[in-house]
Amino acid sequence: MKAVCQGNRVNEGPQRPHPQKSHGTTGRIPEGNSLTEVRSDPLVRGTLGEDPPREGEEGTRNPKGDQAWELRTRGQRPARRIPSAAPVLLDLVRTTRPKQWVKNAFVLAPVVFAHNLFEEKVLLRAVLAFATFSVLSGAVYTLNDLVDVDDDRKHPTKRDRPIASGKVPPRIAKVFAAVLVVVALGAAWRIGHPVAGAAAAYLALNLAYSLRLKQVAYLDVVCIAVFFVLRVVAGCYAVSTWSHPVRPSLYLLACTAFLSLFQGFGKRYHELSVNAAKARGALRAYSPRVLRATLGVTAVSTVVVYLGWTLDPPIQLAFARGYLWVTTPLVMVGIGRFVWLLGSSHGESPTDAMLKDVTFVLIVVSWVAVVVTIIYRLRPA
Asked: Which residues, in sequence order, are CB contacts of 64 under 8 Å at separation 6+?
């Protein structure tokens, strides 16, 4: 069959179907295009091993005005787009778990029981201690996410956390956590050396917890209880003054420890019952029967110690000895409500379920209101 060439256009005699040949990334040559037009395409020239067309050559026009396309035709890489700082900052805040800051309310307990709630300077120191532990706990949560980033990426819900999802680069998260630690410890030092000591112990134990201790069954919950005790200790020294020294009482520390053990073992029981098949190492070492027993023991211990405190309060609350015990039923109802939430949260963390449960929140608010009324409305006889 003879082919007749006219210029750059190739015409053949009678056409018959034939398979199309692939030309690199351009696919087949569109009908009606000349070989010169096709070869002038920068993608085709790259596929054929030729240099991209220089500026001014045919095929370098960019009808859409795409700057990145023009840079590629010149053999240059387009500049990488830098993400906006605002979303990264918001995700950094998310790594600090603001919803969990409610745990630092234990720092404020001593200012109430020390009868100093309405003394402006003392209250300001208590609020500053609360803010300090909120910042410090935020740094701890960020460090914990950095340590657990690989495991979190495999978790059905934790994989959406900013670091695990890749929204916050690990290097930025490390710098952010370091800044939070420096700020928190500096603020604790300004409040008082004992507060700084409690904050440093809190940070050190949290680092040990994140790196190793949380992998040890039962010891991990004991660490959680110590975290709460350290919050109370810091709160006591934050509101202590030369004229009105405040020291943590044995009743207050014991009640805090038992209550936090109860909450910690309850959380482990919930995790084990909801996701036993995919439980992490430490969780698999727990026994549901033992957890139920520890829940009962810690619940009863919390109520007994709290009742003992109400019947034998510190000297500054001696005038309220005959009234504080009436708040004990509210403590019992709150504990019962938490147990009910363990079986009804359907995979949700018990801590999150407590904050969303209107009944539980009302019980806590009622307890606070009654305690404050008794302490600050009654007067010594």
From this structure: none
Q: Mean pLDDT in the chain?
A: 80
Task: Supply the pTM of this predicted model.
Answer: 0.74
- Distance in angstroms (rounded) separating the CA atoms of residues 219 and 264: 11
Average pLDDT over residues 21-25: 45
Q: Residue 191 CB: number of other CB atoms within 10 A?
A: 19
Q: Please count the other Cβ atoms lying within 10 Å of the Cβ belonging to residue 197.
A: 16
Answer for the pair 113, 252: CB distance below 8 angstroms, yes or no: yes
Instruction: Give the confidence band of 343 by pLDDT, cuts at 50, 70, 90.
Output: confident
| pLDDT category of residue 281 using cuts at 50, 70 and 90 | low
Is residue 257's pLDDT more than 50? Answer: yes
Retrieve residue 39's tokens.
């070869």
Place of tokens 């053999």: 75
**Range(s) of the chain covered by CATH 1.10.357.140:** 88-377
Residues forming a β-bridge with 10: 5
Using the predicted structure, report yes or no on whether residue 381 has a pLDDT greater than 60: no
Name which of 200, 201, 205 is nearest 223 in CA terms.
Answer: 205
Distance CA 135, CA 96 (A): 8
Does 239 or 314 have the greater pLDDT score?
Answer: 239
d(CA 195, CA 129): 8
pLDDT exceeds cutoff 70 at 47: no
Which residues have C-beta within 8 Å of that of residue 171, sequence separation ≥ 6? none
Rounded distance, CA 346 to CA 366, Å? 27
Q: Across the chain, where does the E strand assignment appear?
A: 4-6, 9-11
Helix (H) or strand (E) segment spanning residue 258: helix 250-274
* Nearest-angstrom CA–CA distance, 170 and 312: 51
Tokens of 284: 């698999």
Per-residue b/e over 33-45, b at no fewer than 16 CB within 10 Å? eeeeeebebbebb
Q: Which fold has domain 88-377?
A: Tetracycline Repressor; domain 2 (1.10.357)
User: Where do the H-state alpha helices sit in 148-238?
Assistant: 149-154, 162-165, 170-191, 193-211, 219-238
The DSSP code for 323 is T
